[in-house]
Amino acid sequence: MQENLTLRAHVSSVVRKHRWLPPAGVLACGFVFAAAVVRESDWYWIFSAAGSLVLASYVWGYAVRAAKVVDYPSLLNLPRRQYSDVWDALASTPELAKHAACGHEDESSLRRSAQTPVRNLIELVGVRPEDDILEIGCGVARVGFELAPRCRSWTGADLSANMLAVAAQRLQRVSNVKLVKLQQVGLDQLENNSFDLVYSTNMLDHLDGWDRWRYVQQAFRVLRPNGRLFIDNTDLEQDAGWRAFARGAESSQELERTPYLPTPSTTSELTTYASRAGFAQILAHKRSPLVIVTAVKPAIEES
Q1: Residue 107, domain CATH
Q2: How many structural domains compose the chain?
Q3: How far is CA 274 from the centre of its chain?
Q4: Whole-angstrom distance, CA of residue 22 vs CA of residue 32
Q5: What is the SS3 assignment for 281?
């Protein structure tokens, strides 16, 4: 099994570096086959040439699939909480950064992948033209690119400089955006009462529990009164979330766990964070495979 994975990784690497090889092989085999037919060669040579052409075509098809396979580094030398180094390594090129964000390297797939989280945000907490919005763990601005035209301002915060570099490139023609390179877990660099909506999507599963809590706690501080919170994670209590968790548990037995291995949440975990941080109107929404928690920062009481 391990030898097969090693061979596939090697083939994928060679194909990505020399993408011209598979089509060149098909053309060469096609030329040989055509020549054998035109010259009315012996049937043995014609069938051999035809077989080579079929085989070369199959290899080309396999190569196209192999070229799309991203062999993420194990990064076993890095602890999980060294988030900036982990995600800088996973985003060492713009293509890998996009793949880490949505599983694909092309811009059209990246934009399509943002449709569901954008719809969830609009339906569950609202995105208003007068909103100043903050995304925690914005990555390549997968969601921010879509939200910026809908609000007054959008700020993306992330620990990974490489992710933010891709975000900056994607947002270069958008005027109402700001990117913040976080120096540590938390939102210490952002001012109190400065946002109307703070959200995090597809990010908490890569954090330890204490760091999830810190971001929710800090979100309360940077939100204005009546500001809204939106957080999500894979839901351990739903069948889809449990299957993903069980597969991860099975595949990682007796092996070191990669620092970016996702870990799901329960509804009570996320609602407890929101409650302990001081939020009100806390609601949990089940949208398979996610649990989404929304909440509101209470208005300041008049003295």
Answers
A1: 3.40.50.150
A2: 2
A3: 24
A4: 16
A5: strand
Cα–Cα distance between 172 and 192 in angstroms, integer?
Answer: 27
CA atoms within 13 A on the CB side of 188: 6
Residue 74 lies in a domain: no
**DSSP E strand stretches across 22-173:** 132-136, 153-158
Asked if residues 207 and 159 have their Cβ atoms less than 8 Å apart, the reply is no
Name beta bridge partners: 230: 199, 294
pLDDT in tens, 14-55: 555 555 556 665 566 555 546 655 665 565 656 665 566 455
Spatial CA neighbour of 265 closest among 219, 200, 218:
200
Q: Would you call the peptide bond into 94 cis, given omega within 30 degrees of 0 as the criterion? A: no
Domain contains 75: no
Look at residues 39, 68, 97 and tell me which one is the last residue of a structural domain: 68
Average pLDDT, integer, range 265-270: 96
pTM of the model: 0.76
The answer to whether residues 156 and 177 touch, using CB atoms and an 8 Å cutoff, is: yes
User: CA-CA distances (angstroms) from residue 192 to 119, 196, 222?
Assistant: 28, 11, 4
Same domain, 56 and 170: no
Domain containing 254 equals: 83-296
Alpha carbons within 13 A on the beta-carbon side of 157: 22
Examine the domain organization and report whether 55 and 139 are in the same domain. Answer: no
